[in-house]
Each structure stands twice: as C-alpha cells, then as structure tokens.
Amino acid sequence: DVMGNESITGPANKAKTTVSMKNGQRVMKTNGLPNHPTGDFPNSGKPNRISIQRLTYSIPVAPKLSGKAVWAREPGVALNGVKFEPGTAERFVCENGENYRIEALQELIDLGLDANHAHVQPTGAYHYHGVPVGLIEKLDQGKDLVLIGFAMDGFPIYYSKSGQYKPSYRISETPRTGDICTMQTPHTRMQKSLSNTQPDGTFVSDGEYEAGLGQLDECNGTTIDGNYCYLVTDEYPYVGRCLKGVFTEQNRPGGPNGPPGGHRHQGPP
C-alpha cells in the first residue's frame, strides 16, 4: 500500500526503502539504491559509482497548495527512494557574462545517463533526470496513470503511459547571445561561441513556459479528478523544477544545481 506503511526491496535485497506515517508526515527512510537494473557506472560520461546513501524524507500526508510556484532543487522522491533532481551542475560561462546551464537530456555533452534517464553524483547518489523507465515497468498495473513517487510538498507524482497530459513549455525563438563560452568539469573541457545560435533544448534557458500551451502548469502539475498532482513527462521539462504546495527544502538550497541561469528565465519567477 504505497499510500500507507510499506517496505520496498530490490535486487539481492540491496535496495531498501521503508515508509511509515508519523505525525502527519510520510517518513521515508532509504539507502537510495534503485530496485531495478541500471546502466554501468562509472562510465565515460559520469565517472561516479553508485553507493549506499542514508536518507530520510518527511513528506506531508495532507498536502496544501500555497498559491505560488517555488523552485525546488530536489522536487520529489520516487517510491523506491531514488530522488528526482532535474538540474545539472554543468554550464557554459561566457566572457560577456552569460551563463548557460546544460540540460541533462541533450546531445552536446555526454552526462552518462542510463536508460532510466538517471546517473550518479560524486556522492554516489543515483538520481532521476527524467522518466524512470525501470521503476515504471515494476509499478505498472495496466492503468494509464502510474504512481511513481511523491513531491516534497506531498502531492503525488504520476507518469501517463499514453502521454495525454502535455507540458506547457516550448523552445524559445530568441537567439542566444553568449560569445566565447567555456564549460569545465574535472574530466571535460569545451569552448564554443553561442552568439546568435538558435535554442534547441540543450540549455535550461532554451525552454520557455507558455500558460495553456499544454495541460500542465509551470511545475508540470495539473488537477485530475479534483486532486492536484505532478507528472513526469517524455517531453521537456521532463521533471518539474518547482512546487505549488507548501514544503520545506530538506536538502541544501542553491549550490551547483541552483535556480536556472542564462539570459532567459525558465519556469516560475
């Protein structure tokens, strides 16, 4: 019963997540290991190895809408205890001051994502940037909507197998303005000019929210049968970057994966 107390284990019982209800909170204790097959880590795009975590998430059982959209670095956690963290640390910094944060799902830089649209942080934490394919296969009970996790504000996170709920984001038509731009990581360095290049989804700032374009709001959420929820989608932004409910950020705010940068703002203010 994923709405109540539960225990989830994975291959060879290495993955373990327990959930209990305490004082109006859904308390999830997990070692952060996925309960489905993953890609090989480390790999050429991500030189980190999956390792056991010791994480506790406290998520409201009775979520409440706040009336505003608030950015969240880790907007939610899957039922198997693996977190959703759509942002990346990689970015191009340009000599004219422009700053372009790279999307995880793009073709310019190999970030080592596996078939679950996930990879591993330097801490060893496996995390999802998009649709958690392996988890959905385990949870699928034949219905279109598959409950795959909970947002930090307590609202459920679903995946629609039919894709009937579309995001309200589009690719910007405004050319980029960065000139000599450099991306540097401990294992990769790239330099290129982005001036007068057309947005194509490579960078966070390439996406623009247009209310009403799809069925989902700026946080990739909507109301279904009278209840608000979020969806992870096959289309951008894949995982919402903000939350509409009342929540407390349980992990460090800002930092290397902070709010979107660049000359155009993605998502809510």
Q: What would your notes on this structure say?
A:
By secondary structure, the chain is mostly beta strands. Helices cover about 5% and strands about 35% of the residues. It has one helix at about 135-140; strands at about 5-10, 15-20, 25-30, 55-60, 65-70, 75-80, 85, 90-95, 100, 120, 125-130, 145-150, 155-160, 170, 180-185, 190-195, 205-210, 220-225, 225-230, 240-245. The protein has an eight-stranded mixed sheet. Strand 6 and strand 7 (about 85) form a beta hairpin. The model is unreliable at about 250-269 (pLDDT under 50).
User: What count of helical segments does DSSP give?
Assistant: 1
Radius of gyration: 18 Å
Low-confidence sequence ranges: 252-269
Q: What's the number of extended β-strand segments?
A: 20
Q: What order do the strands of the largest sheet run in, or round the barrel if closed?
A: 10-11-7-6-12-13-19-18
Order of helices and strands: EEEEEEEEEEEHEEEEEEEEE
Residues in helices, as a percent range: under 10%
Strand content: 25-35%
Describe the secondary-structure layout.
Layout: E1 6-9, E2 16-22, E3 25-30, E4 55-60, E5 65-71, E6 76-78, E7 83-84, E8 91-94, E9 99-101, E10 118-120, E11 126-128, H1 133-139, E12 145-151, E13 156-160, E14 169-171, E15 180-184, E16 189-193, E17 207-209, E18 221-224, E19 227-231, E20 242-245
Parallel strand pairs: 7-11, 13-19
Antiparallel strand pairs: 1-2, 2-3, 3-4, 5-20, 6-7, 6-12, 8-9, 8-15, 10-11, 12-13, 14-17, 15-16, 18-19
Short description:
With 269 residues, the chain is mostly beta strands. The chain has one helix spanning 133-139, and strands at residues 6-9, 16-22, 25-30, 55-60, 65-71, 76-78, 83-84, 91-94, 99-101, 118-120, 126-128, 145-151, 156-160, 169-171, 180-184, 189-193, 207-209, 221-224, 227-231, 242-245.
